[in-house]
Amino acid sequence: MSRARLRGFSRSDTTRAEAFSDGVLAIAVTLLALGLSDPPHRPGGLGHALLAQWPAYLGYLASFGYVSVIWLNHHQAFVRVRVMDRGLHAANLLLLFSTAALSFPTAVVADALQADPDGSDARVAVALYAGLAAVMCLSWVAFYHQLARHPELLTPEVESTYVRHGRLRSWAGALAYSAAGLLGVVVAPLVAVAVFVVLPVFYFVTSDGFPEGR
Hints:
Blueprint lengths: L1 H4 L9 H20 L11 H7 L1 H27 L5 H15 L2 H13 L4 H30 L12 H25 L2 H17 L9
Catalytic activity: K(+)(in) = K(+)(out)
Family: Belongs to the TMEM175 family.
Membrane topology: Multi-pass membrane protein
């Protein structure tokens, strides 16, 4: 009987998922910092060389902010999740998969902007960044969709609007990053980068959901 019960995917508590997620997010932030380096320069030219690599600082700011709010929202989610099933594990792994790769488009954007802030390569670079960021948002859509389908995965004390607000925020992010990528291609890459920097602020402010009207 016990063997028969173990044939299916067993639900489990969140301990291992949280520990693994925290490790991946910590590594993701570390990889972003590794993109900052001492620029080559002639004697007396360090100040100019440091200023010249402003795209690297901007990319680090945008991506660090994004990973930070992912960690914050991840923490807020797992305070409310009681047990994990296969679907929730899959959504969480997709989130970690995309987050771990964020250092790649960050470096691509920084290099392209430094070469030519308004060039075709910079436009492709911001589209790449926006695409990955949108995938990260869609992984949250999948996460909240699974919670909506299986509310028993949540603790009984969870507020009734939490999942609905989470899905709305995730869809809003996916659309906003997609729109930013389009603006970066059609208008100017720096417009997209400005959106990349601002959007994490939105997710920070709404980490507990949208305020309820009285």
